[in-house]
Amino acid sequence: MGKLQPARGTRDIFGEDARRMEAVTAAFEATARTYGFQLLATPIFEFTEVFARPLGESSDIVTKEMYSFSDRGGEAITLRPEFTAGVARAFISAGMQQSLPVRLMSHGPVFRYERPQKGRYRQFHQINAEFIGSETPETDVEMITMAWRVLESLDIVDKVTLHLNTLGDRESRTVYRDRLVTYFGAHKAALSQDSQRRLDTNPMRILDSKDEGDRVVVEKAPPLDESLTQASLDFYARVEDGLRACDVPFTRDTRLVRGLDYYTHTAFEFITDALGAQGTVIGGGRYDGLIEQLGGPSVPGMGWAGGLERLALLLDAAPSVQRPVVIMPMGDAAVRAALSLAEDLRAAGHTVIADRSGNLKKRLTRAAKAGANHAVILGEDELAADRVTLRNLDAGDQESLPRKALTDRLAAWS
User: Is 124 one of the annotated binding-site residues?
Assistant: First the structure.
């Protein structure tokens, strides 16, 4: 059998990559908690209809990208391609409408069968936030500002630009849909087959097309702004005003759209060009019709998701880790004593590695490779005197001291 490798589009995450992703997740959780969010862990797989119903049977995600299969019981199952639909399902299943509003944060792996690229894999990871039960523009402001604060806490906010738009209310979108049907209908021959199909189902999805031929046609499509109701304009004005009040800079992007019917009003993306090609690292918007479409009550929602791998790549450096202390028991009698000594040091907040094999020279070499700053040597002589030998691996100095004084000495020496 040949050398085993991860499946295409997946990878093992460890070392610096793991520390970067851990830092992003920690910043997200810490920031979201200051906004009153609670953690929700949804299953990695759901019944296929949970995703197919809101995303649309003809969407690219459903037809080309979802990992779907029948389990042994014959149920249609899908690995989650995104978080929002699963969170909405959990909201309905758990009866959360009894305690509105709810603020939910999630993070973890998602799965899409697509061409692997920098910062994007077939199994990748997202951070996700949903605010369900509030229809005010100030909620949108709060959600966007929270995303901004996450980026700020990671010191990468200067590498992104916030793009903002309004999709209008349902009345606006109905008017706009009719205008798009007229426009794209006149240019149908120039559209891709996928977009020709969307013309009959949801023409707004054509605006999201990545096909180069479609992009040429889309460039001259009528702007959504011309179809907005006064109520939509007023809602959006309050979002802009709120972001200014929170000192969150933004750029109006009238081409930023969401093709799915349940999206309304605010849409936004944090975009960077620091990863090569321009790409979105966080995106979201208001989805006032989603929960109802899944069979739940008519409850408004606002949410966003961020690509964990892409955000991690924006960090200037991987977060540093606490340098370990290595305990080196020399002889069988010292091994047992070293166990309790290591626990004492861990309880005091130190990272401790116990190295119980090889001669002292080999152990010191391994300690240096592990990035340790101190070695605690515990041999027969030290045991007999209830002392330890503490070596500073950076300076090469060492001293003998009572075992009970070790914790205080490490604190003073570090």
Answer: no
Host domain of residue 354: 325-413
Are 343 and 307 members of one domain?
no
Cα four-point dihedral sign 102, 106, 110, 116:
positive
Q: Is 113 annotated as a binding residue?
A: no
3-class secondary structure, 26: helix
Mean per-residue pLDDT, 64-85: 93
Q: What is the 3-state secondary structure (H, E, C) of 172-229?
A: HHHHHHHHHHHHHHHCHHHCCHHHHHHHHHCHHHHHHCCCHHHHHHHCCCCCHHHHCC
CATH label of the domain that carries residue 369: 3.40.50.800
Instruction: Let me know if residue 84 belongs to a domain.
Output: yes
The reply to whether 363 sits in an annotated binding site is: no
Task: State pLDDT tens for residues 196-239.
Answer: 988 887 888 888 788 899 999 999 999 888 999 999 999 999 99
Where a domain ends, among 261, 282, 314? 314
Angle between helix 406-413 and 332-347 (nearest 10)? 60
130 is in an annotated binding site: yes
**Contact present, 265 and 140 (Cβ < 8 Å):** yes
Edge-to-edge strands, sheet with 398-402: 352-354, 325-329, 374-378, 387-392, 398-402
Confirm or deny that 84 is annotated as ligand binding: yes
126 is in an annotated binding site: yes
Look up residue 210 and give its two tokens.
Answer: 């990545």
The answer to whether the annotation marks 193 as part of a ligand binding site is no
Together in a domain, 342 and 296? no
Cβ atoms of 406 and 385 within 8 Å: the answer is no
Q: Could you say which of 286, 314, 342 is where a domain stops?
A: 314
Question: Would you say the pTM of this structure is higher than 0.90?
Answer: no
HSE (CB half, 13 Å, CA atoms) of 132?
A: 29
Answer yes or no: is 258 a known binding residue: yes
Which residues have CB under 8 Å from 29's CB, separation 6+? 39, 105, 107
